[in-house]
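Reminder to self: tokens first, then the designed residues, so the page reads top to bottom the way the pipeline ran.
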């Protein structure tokens, strides 16, 4: 009852406040997007200069920086310290007197980055150096560019005085790269009230730049689920001078040789089928032919084979995948160890069962000396986002307006993002890295000399603003 009364009072206060604020009644003005992109570029550079390599993350420093900008723009926000030194920023623009999570759109980006090996970089990884049209720095793509673009979007909406049809929730998250105790999972569990929303835009999609033109805008609507499986070989220990057929190292090596080339049958799903169908419109003839053949039952198997051979990423999008990543065996040159282990990084298509796959792998290896065990902390097995939602349709409509000749298509990412946690919370979350990037640009993510073309960054800021303002403004 008290809650209800206070809500009514809050609504009343909002009406008075809104009525008294001249800007709220003024007609909305189109923001100067070139100027906005300039500002956003400054924010991106500043944020690159704040080292948030995870571990340890230290996101609090960036969180305070972002909060100060929101503060200056009179956008209500708070910094929440999830664990010591690890802060997130939550900002809001409200469409009406009461928060309305059932229609709210979240703009999400993570503040932490992976680490760097400074000896491999040609510039200071935290210097935000601009060279030959690129901004260099750890996080230049992943994910400080999106963080700056999200910030530019909410600031521009606020300044324009646009009448909103839905609430905007700004979230600068932490601990995405490690998914530990300060990650979005924890934020959803503990602070859902503060970030509640129905839609979200996050990293994970891509704007593919090829031969100087945007070929497609990939809207990430689903992602593979990450697991680690530990393979253990056991056998008798012994002297290195007496070879034995039951040597654990030999058995592990044989198992890994089989597992490394093991192909789970392909299973195109709604998203990958639609992806290839759309991509066929802009691909070269030969490749496009195989993409269309996926839909012809008598040629589908051959099509899968061709596409899988043409691109390792397509291969991974089409099936559960197994990648050996670590091998551990032995401790002395002249000792046969009694145990040898390996790690398999397994990425499952959403909805598939890891236990079933482990069963199949056991049969394929067929060796009583080999055992499989699922490692703790598996990824989130989330249902895909809806390809007919109003947000998906907005991006699909705006993408070709923004980049002429480009197609919009749904995308199933092979890597994991924070979106899976949101999807499990019934949020229609989509990945939209709005910056046009080539494969070569993209490959530097998590790598040495990560960089983003200045022009692509600016274009991405504008594209994101257009999508969000179209989706969130009253028409
Ligand atoms: Zn990222």
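Designed residues (475 positions):
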């Amino acid at each position: 009852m008290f809650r209800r009364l206070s809500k009514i009072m809050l609504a009343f206060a909002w009406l008075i406040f809104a009525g008294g604020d001249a800007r709220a009644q003024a007609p909305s003005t189109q923001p100067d997007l070139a100027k906005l992109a300039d500002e956003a570029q400054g924010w991106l550079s500043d944020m690159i200069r704040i080292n948030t390599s995870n571990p340890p993350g230290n996101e609090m420093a960036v969180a305070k920086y972002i909060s100060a900008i929101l503060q200056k723009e009179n956008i209500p926000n708070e910094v929440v310290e999830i664990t010591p030194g690890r802060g997130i920023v939550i900002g809001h623009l409200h469409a009406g007197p009461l928060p309305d999570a059932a229609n709210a759109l979240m703009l999400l980006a993570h503040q932490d980055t992976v680490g760097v090996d400074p000896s491999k970089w040609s510039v200071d990884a935290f210097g935000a150096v601009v060279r030959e049209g690129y901004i260099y720095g750890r996080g230049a793509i992943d994910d400080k560019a999106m963080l700056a673009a999200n910030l530019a979007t909410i600031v521009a909406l606020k300044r324009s005085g646009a009448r909103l049809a839905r609430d905007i929730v700004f979230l600068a998250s932490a601990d995405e790269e490690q998914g530990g105790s300060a990650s979005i999972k924890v934020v959803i569990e503990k602070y859902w009230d503060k970030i509640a929303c129905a839609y979200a835009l996050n990293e994970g999609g891509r704007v593919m730049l090829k031969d100087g033109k945007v070929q497609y805008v990939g809207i990430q609507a689903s992602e593979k689920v990450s697991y680690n499986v530990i393979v253990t070989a056991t056998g008798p220990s012994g002297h290195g001078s007496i070879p034995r057929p039951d040597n654990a190292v030999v058995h592990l090596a044989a198992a890994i040789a089989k597992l490394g080339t093991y192909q789970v049958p392909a299973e195109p799903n709604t998203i990958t089928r639609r992806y290839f169908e759309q991509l066929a419109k802009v691909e070269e003839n030969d490749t496009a032919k195989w993409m269309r053949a996926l839909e012809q039952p008598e040629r589908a198997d051959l099509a899968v084979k061709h596409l899988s051979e043409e691109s390792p990423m397509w291969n991974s999008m089409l099936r559960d995948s197994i990648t050996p990543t670590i091998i551990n065996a032995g401790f002395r040159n002249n000792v046969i160890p009694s145990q040898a282990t390996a790690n398999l990084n397994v990425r499952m298509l959403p909805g598939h069962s890891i236990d079933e796959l482990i069963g199949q792998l056991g049969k394929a290896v067929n060796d009583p000396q080999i055992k499989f065990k699922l490692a703790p902390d598996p990824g989130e097995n989330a249902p895909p986002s809806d390809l007919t939602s109003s947000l998906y349709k907005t991006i699909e409509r705006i993408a070709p307006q923004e980049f002429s000749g480009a197609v919009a298509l749904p995308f199933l990412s092979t890597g994991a993002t924070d979106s899976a946690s949101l999807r499990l919370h019934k949020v229609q979350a989509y990945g939209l890295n709005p910056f046009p990037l080539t494969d070569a640009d993209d490959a530097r993510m998590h790598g040495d000399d990560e960089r983003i073309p200045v022009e692509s960054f600016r274009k991405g800021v504008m594209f994101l603003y257009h999508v969000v303002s179209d989706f969130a403004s009253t028409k």
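The longest strand covers residues 213-223.
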